[in-house]
Amino acid sequence: MEKTIQTAFDDAKHIVFLTGAGVSTASGIPDFRSANGLYTQNRNAEYYLSHRYFASDPDGFYEFCKKNLYFPDAKPNVIHEKQAALTQQDRATVITQNIDNLYEEAGTKHLIDFHGNLYHVYCEKCGETVPVADYLKSRIHAKDGGPLRPDIVLYDEGIKQQNIIDAVKAMQAADLVVIVGTSMKVYPFAGLLEYRNPNAKVVAINRQELHFSFDFEMVQEDATKFFAELKVK
């Protein structure tokens, strides 16, 4: 790791991590948009994860989610752990597209699940939160017979307003923005870069080279290698 990047982390008081599927691949969770990913292998995947499909075929939606989205044996990796450590120092916020709950397991303190979390499940009838284990046994709430669903943003649904507000505030306050494991092509998440503090240093850590219209530092390597070498005070 370049000394200047380590220094940027050491000196930063308000880091924002913008993260995507590449963070969790080292934990055994596939990148849905990669060559072997769910979206590539199944052309209908986006439809199966839409609110339209959820409303029209709740049983089909439930079976698709159970089969393709849940990886209960996955554990946080060094990327989650180092980022979580920085949030615990009140020096960082994580804004993630991931819905796999690994940031929560790593103890991330300032976390915005921009697209929701598969492990937060609630009853649409009464609003009660239920354990994910109950959902994986049945999509019907045992208490009142209401339909259960994971609290994730489906296609043709909007992002929660509070998540947008919190994410924009974090970007405006940041003195270091670190993009990790994402191509930054999915909107509105990618649009968060437009709200960054103009004085913030931007670093991108990704296997594939990224391109932006503003100055930034590209670290084209495996993020696990980068974060294994990163020293956290």
TrEMBL record:
Gene3D superfamilies: SIR2/SIRT2 'Small Domain (3.30.1600.10), TPP-binding domain (3.40.50.1220). InterPro entries: DHS-like_NAD/FAD-binding_dom, NAD-dep_sirtuin_deacylases, Sirtuin, Sirtuin_cat_small_dom_sf, Ssirtuin_cat_dom. It is an enzyme of class 2 (transferase). Keywords: NAD, Transferase. Residues 1-233 form the Deacetylase sirtuin-type domain. Its EC number is 2.3.1.286. Signal peptide: none annotated. SUPFAM superfamilies: DHS-like NAD/FAD-binding domain. It comes from the Bacteria. This is protein acetyllysine N-acetyltransferase. It comes from Limosilactobacillus oris F0423. The lineage of its organism: Bacteria, Bacillati, Bacillota, Bacilli, Lactobacillales.
